[in-house]
Design brief:
2 copies of one chain form a homodimer. With about 350 residues, the first copy, chain A, is of the alpha/beta class. Helices cover about 45% and strands about 15% of the residues of chain A. Chain A has a 6-stranded parallel sheet with strand order 2-1-3-4-5-11. In chain A, strands 7-6-8-9 form a 4-stranded parallel sheet, with helices on both faces. In chain A, strands 10-12 form a two-stranded antiparallel ribbon. Chain A binds a DNA duplex (16 and 16 nucleotides) through helix 2 and helix 4.
Chain lengths: ~350, ~350
DNA sequence: CTGAAAGCGCTTACAG
DNA sequence: CTGAAAGCGCTTACAG
């Protein structure tokens, strides 16, 4: 009951005593809230500085915000997420917010567990990349915590914001490019998942692929394959594809990561890329630039996606409730994996 | 003052009322603490289940643990960190702990800021991968929060645990392999950093490299180059190296990631790997297995490193204070980038 | 503009 | 074994 500095922790109380004001006043300065005079503010700031005060996030979280944002990714392999994340950081540079990451390892159960963990920890908002949850589960999450998705096309009436590239268009650009360079039997290599939904980027890309193939009069060549989780299994699927009687002359991979596996199998089988087989990826990650890959890919500006997602999330935390959707226009980047002598 | 369920949040109090016990009793069940009868425990658990109770982490953090561990990595590009992380997850599978990641983007200032943020958020402990901070700063952090490092060789009197592979030996294995396969002019391509310390893995590898070169009577060929942060700059350094009058016949890269860049430049310059140039990496990440890379590398069992780090951290959180150091013996994995016809 | 006091949901001695 | 009560460090109405 008596004022006894149990440990030497500097709290809001220590600051208040040092500055000769109330704890309420310090709290207000801390939150940049209304109703404090400039002189009081200055005095409090000076004391904070002097004492090296740092707010106790858990205590803040009991009543107000934690200034912590959750960033949820499926895995740590895909360098595309790194691009997105750096965009998030740019947007948050001059704010109090810190971003902490969760990695679900592409397991729906882990994804759910991590979201629960982030809500338990009173995070102020969530950015979820390519959620594995069903769309209705995303809605349930968003009802509890401000949420922005990247790589999840929202259904009407969504209670969360979303940031995407136009996957439909991206896929069409790929097919049109491959057709223009003389390919006919273009296979779309998608992701193997338990519950396929319209909201998924892979589904959107498949629709674009089918449409573009039809438009090119190549409807009879339409073929979709699915890559499992592990590298070994994926390579096995690709090997089957490339050793079949009617081998495709091009493979459009839903993400660069899978494209690298295709290039590997092609090389093992002694196929010449791009002459025997063209390979196109998606995301235009840094690996595409390496000469041993030189992989044509779709650039969807990961940095921009991340930056916009962070912006929308802050807005939503501040009170906006109507859903917003930000879309980036994808761009084809041609390299040697689809056109000879392109570097 | 009166009991009024402000929101419909299920708290320890709700559970206590439902189970007809005190909040203290519920807390004990929650923490698996001593001094509760089996019947009380069962009753409380049933109520928790029924009400869908979830502990409020911020509130727990005010007095006790948050059951949150911080995992700090320099970047999201290097797939090696993914291996480590999956090991951490295995170790934590059946515990209450959740791991949240921080990515410092290889900036010392961000590393410090993230560690502060994690301490502010009352995390129970920290696993820091390849810290950029000076060794004494790591000690300061460890004085405030239980800490385990991976990829940081501790100085005597350390107040934190560490998990490493034997970098010194790993480097020697690489040089010995390259010498045995007829290479003489082996360059070590290290990491460009502001403050070089003995604690760093890159330094340890350099020492091993120098020693093995001397032992092989190749002292006059010793040459160390440094790769900057960005891919573009790194490729430029490598290009200079490979276009110099006395071109090396082998490059030992401190990490696979850099090795991929070397392979790219070599291909651009029309050099045959491994005949004109052998390339060896470190970490044996999944990229080494791709046929277009087929890169010889040192396996340091990322999974094991992560698992042991998590184990040590839990021990330390539970009270151990003397420092422990766990070392993995590295293993050379030979592929086509150093020996012809190796697949 | 400023501050006293209640309360957020837990854990921790301490008594019983 | 069980529980009443203080307290963790903040924020939030509410008075002044």
């Amino acid at each position: 009951m008596a004022p006894r500095p149990k440990s030497d922790r500097v709290t809001i109380k220590t600051v208040a005593e040092d500055a000769g004001v109330s704890v309420a006043a310090v709290s207000k300065v801390l939150r940049d809230a209304y109703g404090v005079s400039e002189s009081l503010r200055a005095r409090v700031r000076a004391s904070m500085e002097k004492l090296g005060y740092r707010p106790h996030t858990a205590a803040r979280g009991m009543r107000g915000q934690t200034y912590t944002l959750g960033f949820l990714i499926p895995d740590m392999h895909n360098p595309f997420f790194s691009d997105i994340f750096s965009g998030v950081n740019v947007a948050l540079e001059r704010t109090q917010y810190q971003t902490l990451l969760g990695v679900s390892q592409s397991a729906t159960s882990m994804e759910v567990a991590l979201i629960e963990a982030m809500i338990d920890r009173q995070m102020d908002g969530l950015i979820v990349i390519g959620p594995r949850m069903l769309s209705r589960d995303v809605m349930e999450v968003a009802a509890r915590i401000p949420t922005v998705t990247i790589g999840h096309h929202p259904t009407p009436g969504a209670n969360f914001d979303s940031v995407n590239n136009d996957d439909h268009l991206g896929a069409k650009l790929v097919v049109q490019h491959l057709v223009a360079t003389g390919h006919k039997h273009v296979v779309y290599l998608s992701q193997e998942v338990a519950d396929r939904e319209h909201t998924m980027v892979t589904t959107q890309r498949e629709i674009g692929y089918r449409e573009a193939m039809q438009e090119a009069g190549l409807g009879k060549f339409i073929q979709v394959a699915y890559a499992p989780q592990t590298s070994r299994e994926t390579q096995s699927v690709v090997r089957h594809l490339l050793q079949s009687r009617n081998r495709p002359d091009a493979i459009f991979c839903w993400t660069d990561f899978i494209g690298l596996e295709v290039l590997s199998v092609a090389k093992e089988l002694g196929l010449n890329v791009p002459n025997d087989l063209a390979v196109v990826g998606y995301d235009n990650t840094s690996y595409c630039d390496l000469a041993q890959n030189a992989m044509t890919s779709i650039d969807q500006s990961g940095q921009v996606l991340g930056l916009q997602a962070a912006r929308l999330l802050i807005e939503r935390i501040k009170g906006r409730t109507e859903a917003e959707n930000y879309t980036v226009t994808p761009r084809l980047v041609v390299r040697g994996s689809s056109v000879p002598n392109t570097g």
